[in-house]
Write a structure and sequence with these properties.
9-stranded mixed beta sheet, Spore Coat Polysaccharide Biosynthesis Protein SpsA, Chain A, 2 domains, about 400 residues, alpha/beta
Length: about 400
């Protein structure tokens, strides 16, 4: 898999950055936890967002550092921060940037914020990220750190849309959203049962969202930082960790509530997904693959991982090449990578049978019935196995 191109932002003469600091001073040692928040014209929400960090429990709040990357803001966001900044119990840095055309995206803003966080964090520390229209739970930092300390490399938190804002959406969008949510939970269960991973057991979710993500600072450096995509940079971050066989936990103990508005700041972000739910031919969320593909992908991934871990992957070259519809030479070439994650990603790129086939709104009810039946079968098999 090719990494996205990374043009040199610093080479643009119209790039400017201004850093201001607020709240608690930086400690004598580099911080254990640094949070990066991309911000674009959030004067109505930024105070609540930062207030949620002031209420964190289970950690020394005076040692927490938050980096707010203000991307081309032309409203009163910075003024609001300046009003509350002196009273904050944690250390806040605002990085006000004027990004040139082609770089003024949520993806680049998050990347710059996380890169700044990485420069501040202790080498054994953790970089976290969320959004300016998101409220983290009071134990969000604590639970992320607990997960990382258990031996994980990255944590994807559980993201819920603001129920008050959801109630303002049209009934048709709410109905589709409810079905998508049910499908997503069933897909996560099927993946966990068909391709179980010790570090990410059921119960879990399958979201990979920038509204709640955490990664070891050392792993962030190892993968070369956040891929600077216009949109989808959050999913790409977790994919980079998978490519090196990093351990990712989709934790139900790490929780945030994010905005359900339809006038979002990021093209292709959650707000666009919510708005487009009213179109029956539009694909559902990226996590919603047709039922049979969810099952096939999980079963094949588990089988290939078992062969990989046993060292017998090349002994099954011909059989798997036929099954995947690729040449034996291509299969062998992919298998030369030192990581199963990259091997699997290369196979996904080579095999037409592994191309993602997303559910559309018009297919959603039918596919929901199918995945329910598959999950029920998987549960029954698991129950029978325990009984034996």
């Amino acid at each position: 898999m090719n990494r996205p191109s990374r043009p040199d932002l610093e080479s643009h003469n119209d790039f400017t950055a201004e850093v201001e600091t607020f709240g608690a001073p930086l400690g004598a040692t580099r911080p254990r936890a640094v949070v990066a928040i991309p911000v674009k014209n959030e004067e109505d929400r930024i105070v609540q967002c930062l207030a949620a960090f002031a209420e964190q429990v289970g950690v020394d709040i005076s040692q927490l550092v938050v980096v707010a990357l203000l991307n081309n803001c032309d409203d009163g966001t910075l003024a609001r921060i300046r009003e509350i900044g002196p009273q904050l119990p944690f250390h806040l840095q605002t990085h006000s940037v004027r990004l040139p055309k082609g770089f003024a995206t949520a993806g680049w803003a998050r990347k710059l914020g996380m890169d700044a966080a990485a420069r501040l964090a202790h080498p054994d520390g953790v970089i976290l990220t969320t959004d300016a229209d998101t409220l983290v739970d009071e134990d969000w930092v604590e639970q992320n750190l607990k997960e990382i300390e258990s031996g994980l490399d990255a944590v994807a938190g559980y993201v819920m849309a603001d129920p008050m804002e959801l109630m303002e959406l049209p009934a048709a969008i709410l109905d589709r959203g409810r079905l998508e949510w049910e499908y997503q939970q069933l897909a996560a269960e099927l993946q966990a049962r068909a391709d179980p991973e010790a570090h990410d057991p059921w119960p879990k979710h399958n979201q990979n969202c920038g509204a709640s993500a955490a990664i070891r600072a050392s792993v962030y450096e190892r993968i070369g930082g956040l891929p600077p995509l216009t949109v989808g940079e959050d999913r790409a971050l977790f994919e980079e960790v998978r490519l090196i066989d990093g351990k990712i936990r989709h934790s139900l103990d790490v929780h945030v509530v994010t905005s359900a508005r339809t006038d979002g700041r990021a093209l292709g972000g959650l707000s666009d997904q919510i708005r487009l739910r009213g179109e029956p031919d539009h694909p559902c969320d990226d996590a919603l693959e047709v039922a049979v593909s969810v099952l096939r992908r999980a079963v094949w991934r588990r089988s290939l991982r078992t062969l990989w871990e046993s060292g017998d992957i090349l002994s099954e070259t011909d059989a798997w090449a036929r099954k995947l519809g690729v040449s034996p030479a291509a299969f062998v070439s992919a298998a030369r990578t030192p990581h199963f994650g990259r091997f699997w990603a290369e196979l996904e790129g080579l095999s037409a049978k592994l191309q993602w086939r997303l559910v559309t709104g018009g297919e959603l009810k039918r596919e929901l019935r199918r995945i329910k039946r598959i999950v029920q079968s998987a549960r029954a098999r698991a129950k029978a196995s325990v009984a034996r």
